[in-house]
Amino acid sequence: xMGSTPRSFELxxxxxxxxxxxxxxxxxxxxxxxxxPEEFAYxxxxxxxxxxxxxxxxxxxxxxxxxxxxxLSIDGENLEIIVQDEGKGFELETxxxxxxxxxxxxxxxxxxxxxxxxxxxxxxxxxEGGSILRMVKRLPEET
Length: 143
Description:
Elements: E1 9-14, H1 20-34, H2 38-59, E2 67-74, E3 78-85, H3 110-118, E4 121-127, E5 130-138
Antiparallel strand pairs: 1-2, 2-3, 3-5, 4-5
Helix pairs in contact: 1-2, 2-3
């Protein structure tokens, strides 16, 4: 794959959905740098989009004075994604299952399900002044 240790990527944006273009631009750079396969990259970008939108809307309540941070790094075997916001956080276990009858037609609630279904590991850490969602995905074997 890569000879030298690949760099990590980091971006902090104000909590406005309009800033998501910067997230996608950063991810495009990471895809090239990390040489990620197209389908793998698609699911990673979906998880990043869902988690950053959750950080902006739910974590920071769309308050532009608060920020959301995305960090991407790779260790040779795994891709690690960290999304940090300035919200109160939530419990992963308390997110309603969007596949249950009463929740099927709700407009939100699918992001965490999508993230959990694709990622190998999902952890949420709350701290004074915010929360961190850490997602880890094993890199595909080289073809």
